[in-house]
Write a structure and sequence with these properties.
mainly alpha, about 0% strand
């Protein structure tokens, strides 16, 4: 089997596992208990931990109906999710900016040179890729924002794309979660 097909199948398998785990944890009793005990602070803590998407593979905004049934205002909850997720995404960017200077010394600098060449050919391409990633992928945005930081992309467009993407993504997912309940 060709290498590209194998990588594509593996990527789809990982994506399916993430969605399956998300479905399993959606109305988990520990999430409901965290809401009842912690209120908005519990939502903030859960969102912060979950924003890295490695420990708990759940799209946080799918839990908005659960938190709303616990007495929390859904608009405030979605706002908190957007702010916290954007802050963590920008933290990935800052780490990438600090790593920018050491990239030239690592062995895989050739890979970054290819990405840098694509960026020089099209100034909007990195932001377009980031926009699609934030809007469509329930995976960590820090991966892309970190790479854009390493490439030296400006912070204002990265922040704008991440913030608008998070607003749209989490608003739509929250709406769909409410309509599914």
């Amino acid at each position: 089997m060709p290498k590209k097909i194998t990588k594509s199948i593996f990527g789809l398998l990982v994506f399916a596992i993430v969605l399956l785990l998300q479905h399993q944890f959606h109305d988990h009793p520990s999430v409901v208990a965290l809401t009842e005990r912690g209120g908005y602070l519990g939502v903030a803590a859960f969102t912060f931990v979950n924003s890295f998407n490695f420990l708990v593979p759940i799209v946080t905004s799918t839990l908005v109906p659960t938190w709303a049934s616990g007495g929390l205002n859904p608009i405030v909850v979605v706002g908190m999710i957007v702010v916290i997720m954007t802050a963590v995404d920008m933290f990935g960017y800052v780490i990438g900016r600090y790593a920018h200077h050491s990239v030239n010394r690592i062995r895989h600098a050739a890979m970054f040179e290819k990405i840098r060449h694509l960026r020089e050919r099209s100034l909007f391409l990195p932001y377009l890729i980031l926009g699609f990633w934030v809007l469509l992928m329930p995976l960590p945005n820090e991966i892309i924002t970190g790479i854009l930081g390493i490439l030296g992309c400006r912070i204002a467009p990265v922040f704008s794309v991440v913030f608008v993407g998070n607003v749209v993504f989490h608003s739509v997912v929250s709406y769909l979660a409410f309509s599914a309940t």
